[in-house]
TrEMBL record:
<keyword id="KW-0862">Zinc</keyword>
<dbReference type="GO" id="GO:0016787">
    <property type="term" value="F:hydrolase activity"/>
</dbReference>
<dbReference type="GO" id="GO:0046872">
    <property type="term" value="F:metal ion binding"/>
</dbReference>
<keyword id="KW-0378">Hydrolase</keyword>
<protein>
    <recommendedName>
        <fullName>Metallo-hydrolase/oxidoreductase</fullName>
    </recommendedName>
</protein>
<dbReference type="InterPro" id="IPR036866">
    <property type="entry name" value="RibonucZ/Hydroxyglut_hydro"/>
</dbReference>
<keyword id="KW-0479">Metal-binding</keyword>
<comment type="similarity">
    <text>Belongs to the metallo-beta-lactamase superfamily.</text>
</comment>
<dbReference type="InterPro" id="IPR051013">
    <property type="entry name" value="MBL_superfamily_lactonases"/>
</dbReference>
Length: 341
């Protein structure tokens, strides 16, 4: 996502997203800061995450983004995702370790807790961990006072996270996305106002996992309110969220053949429910079409290339505040030349 790929106009929108209802985002003075952190890298094979794949032999290096969020009115800090556990080689089962090594070519940068400490944030004072999938649940031990937040299946379905929760003695805070406190926001039907002031919404975006959760963060107040939507594993290739009409052909890959498995082995499911995943992508794409919302997924190789080395963007810098003024939102047009392996 180089400077030449920044948003420069209003191209024809993908018609599939225009029919979605969109509720105006809530106004208010309360805002948060949000800063990206990278604790690990993985290599993704294009035909596993994109269909149809224009380059079936292509693969790309991608980060596992973690996001440090600070609620300005209270000073409480939160983490959306925790990246891959730094000690995965001993913490995960042999099967998981083999996948991380041989299929995803995982490289750990550092433990998230240590990255925070180097940036002046005490992990023991982090207020909450907003959890997602196995490669984003990280290592929770340094966050001794943080509440663990997720949907009903978040802590039940993931063995490694469940083990960490049990060892910590914590009782997770479960967000019931079918409960009475849930409201529609933007293009989404089910969202929870975490602080009660409209500055941070936890959004149900199921599909990749049963209770996958995105977070919508207000980074500036009216009259020029701006938002950042962090979407974890909602999409694994940026062009899946491209709003250009000529990119509507691209869809997520529902299953893939594991190159590490036997030749006659059945294909592997990429998502808990592919239809739900497609719906969550469609709704996220509708958010991306708004000029006051910037969407960032967990494995955004384009944003990584664009932001790396930029101390203003990456934690502990300014983060994504005033992203519009600073020209931080980029396009998502398919471009294999941006891949790095």
């Amino acid at each position: 996502m180089s400077s030449s790929a920044r948003v420069t106009g209003a191209p024809e929108l993908d018609a599939s997203i225009l029919s979605l209802p969109f509720r105006p985002l809530p106004e208010g003075d309360a805002t948060c800061t949000i800063s990206p952190i990278i604790n690990s890298f993985v290599t993704l094979q294009e035909p596993i995450v994109l269909y149809p794949s224009p380059n079936p032999q292509a693969s790309f290096r991608a980060p596992s983004f973690v996001f440090h969020i600070v609620h300005k009115p209270t000073g409480k800090s939160l983490l959306y995702d925790l990246g891959i556990r730094w000690d995965f080689e001993t913490a995960f089962s042999e099967d998981y370790v083999k996948v991380l090594h041989d299929l995803w070519h995982t490289k750990i940068v550092d433990d998230v807790g240590k990255i925070l400490e180097k940036g002046g944030v005490d992990p023991a004072k982090v207020h909450a961990l907003l959890h997602e999938h196995w490669d984003h649940t990280g290592y929770i031990a340094p966050f001794t006072t943080a509440e663990l937040v997720g949907g009903p299946q978040t802590f039940a379905a993931e063995a490694n996270l469940s083990e960490q929760v049990k060892a910590s003695g914590k009782t997770p805070r479960i967000v019931d996305f079918s409960g009475p406190s849930i409201q529609p926001v933007g293009a989404f039907e089910r969202a929870f106002d975490y602080f009660g002031d409209g500055s941070l919404w936890l959004i149900h975006t199921p599909g990749h996992t049963q209770d996958h959760m995105s977070a919508l963060v207000r980074v500036s107040s009216a009259p020029d309110a701006q938002w950042v939507l962090v979407g974890g594993d909602t999409a694994h290739h940026p062009c899946l969220l491209c709003t250009h009409a000529n990119h509507a052909q691209y869809q997520l890959k529902a299953t893939f053949r594991n190159p590490l498995a036997e030749a006659d082995a059945p294909e592997v499911k990429m998502h808990f429910d592919a239809d739900l995943a497609r719906d969550s992508i469609k709704r996220t794409k509708r958010m991306e079409a708004e000029d006051n919302i910037m969407c960032v997924m967990a494995h955004e190789y384009g944003y990584w290339k664009y932001w790396r080395g930029n101390e203003e963007v990456m934690f502990p810098g300014l983060g994504l505040s005033e992203w519009k003024k600073r020209g931080l939102k980029g396009t998502r047009v398919y471009d294999v030349t941006e891949y790095e392996e």
